[in-house]
Amino acid sequence: SMSDLKTLYLIRHAESLENERIGCLQRSLSDVGRLSLPRMSDLRRSVELINVPAQVDSDVSSVGWDQINQVRDQLRADEFLTKNNVQLVAHSPLLRARHTSEGMLGCVTATSSTEQKLSPPVKRVEELDCLLEKAPSEWIPGNVGGFAKRIEEFEHWICDQPEDNIAIVGHSQFFKAMLEMTYKFNNCDVWEIKLDCTKVPDRNVEEEEEKKDDTAVVKGKEESESDCSAQGE
Q1: H/E element, 126
Q2: Looking at residue 102, what DSSP letter applies?
Q3: CA angle 125, 131, 133 (to 5 degrees)
Q4: Quick one: which of 114, 101, 95 has its CA closest to 53?
Q5: What pLDDT does 213 receive?
């Protein structure tokens, strides 16, 4: 039977080339502030950061691969998946989250050229559009509604799944906003949280509306599926 209490293991992706470039930019700016010349390698990477499309879906850096391998070995030694009976893994579609999910947990959805991977006891892996990191447009004041709606849709999706122990590989701003934290997860952090589905906003309201009006709910379902659709089927 489906429980109202879900145990989530939230995992932030490994360091990406974007994280590395932001780190370089911060070092360059602080060096300029101290009147010492920034290192050329830092400047070069910082200039790359202006390339926004690369920033939105950047790959894992060499430091990131080291993080993945270290944490994977630790999780295997601790028998993390088995001891916590993780039955479902969901990851963001972005490369850094896919690579982290595959590298750390041995679970990733199929692509046109690669097969799905699962590690026991995980029975299912899903790629969720609503887990995407906060987009540049969602930082604009007055435009945060879409981001908040995605977080709510993600929580609804979790509560609708039959599995109770779920690992999620995603992004720091998403998790920070979802948990109302004042700081961000570090790369490859694994946090365990309990999600009480009876307290998820608007969830019970939707169930009441379903009973009242079937036509409205068909429309609502279509809308939410476009934002938080699982890609792993």
Answers
A1: strand 124-127
A2: I
A3: 135
A4: 95
A5: 46
